[in-house]
Amino acid sequence: MLLIVFLIVEFGIAFNHYIELANGVAAGARALAVARGTTTAYSDTLTAINNAAPNLNSFASPVTGQQITIVVAGTTCSAANQAGACANAFAEGATAAVTATYPCSLSVMWVTIPGCSLSSSATEYVQ
Fold it and tell me: Domain range for residue 117?
């Protein structure tokens, strides 16, 4: 009976992390979609994700297994190119996509289930 309670709690925590990840990615995609004309689209998107998912580790300083991909009209954005190629890719109607992967830790009664990873993506049209 105790094992079932621990399983419910662990899966509840993992599901909460997934909901936060999905909300953060959606907020990031919305922020990216309205970032046309700025040179800080990448950092603004990370800020939106981190603000919408406060209980997850920050995507600004990722932990092992934590990844984020930000793409505008086929151009992958990063901190290094947010004022150059990324800023030039913004055109009204282009797609702005955010994909994030976050590690989860499922452990029940001192047994860790390996390979747990949460993933979410969202796509918006640039305004």
Answer: 2-125
